[in-house]
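Chapter review: from sequence to fold.
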Amino acid sequence: MVRSIRLALVAGLAFCASGALAQWWDPMPGGRPPPIGRPMFQTPPEELVYSPLVYDRAGLVAVESVMNGDFGKPDRMHDEFLKEGRRATHGLFLLESIQMAWDRQVRVVDAATLRQAVLQPWEKANPGSRLRKLVEAIAWQRQAWNARGGGYAGRVPGESMAIFRERLGRARKALEAAEPEGRESPLWYWVALIVAGSSGQPEQALSALYEDAAARFPYYHTIHATRMNYLLPQWGGDFDRVDAFVRQVVERTRQKDGEAFYAWLYMDVARKIDGDYLSVTRATWPLMKKGFEDMLARYPDAHNRNLFATHACRARDKATTAKLLAELGPAASLGLDSPGITTESCRRFALEGA
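The token string follows.
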């Protein structure tokens, strides 16, 4: 029974890891043997390229290792990624991959079953695991939202709201159990911000928690995106407050990332609202364009170039779209989180009749 649950948990994460290089935590990505005549040894760090593919693979390995009874590897990965501040070539932290992978996994089964099948064996094998405590908090907050759903509070049945509040309380207790060591990880703050915001904590308390998180982890994307959620109109905020917040984050992160966070955060807003974000919010295309340019200057990955092209096409910037499509060539893959935008439609828009 436990093994079947574990297999179900990791099934949704499987993907082809072709092209990934080896590292200590994944010596044979995708289970592939080394080429004939090449020894099976760890690739020297200078040869590693932390592509988006390797980024995704890191989260998969962190989950799979626990399911396979290797309880030490995920903690070592977490601690190493945290210490090194390792970012992939698209600018996201490898630690965010572990966070997102576990968030996906705890949607699959209820938190009580997850605790029996995974967390209790993990605790028994590695009682001091910081990551296990954080995963438990992630599980309860995700299960809280599973019970509530994403609709407006007034449309959620009373019984579902009661379960929502109970599970947020369990998440809060898990966070408390993870202190003080848990606060050394941005995963702790990410869950804490969700729990505080979802529980309707006073604005002053939520802002204080965010300031503590941002002071410790100023470049960690989901810290800023999560705080911003509770400034959106659906949470009683407005787009003026969102814009002021985005500009503050840009100032906070300018030293390393230029104005890239303007694009990162407004892309997150675009995913969470109805309508065209360039019409509904205070975002402007010139500032989005500058944000993407700074992003590409620091993280010149095809993933980011495709995002830039997608949003240039959305903004009807024909010249920029055409330029980026030419640079991407066969690697063009436009349309992420942008309904109605495809590579073909953008080529027709930017290139036909040019």
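Two observations follow directly from the output. Residues 82 and 95 are 7 Å apart (CA to CA). The mean pLDDT is 87.
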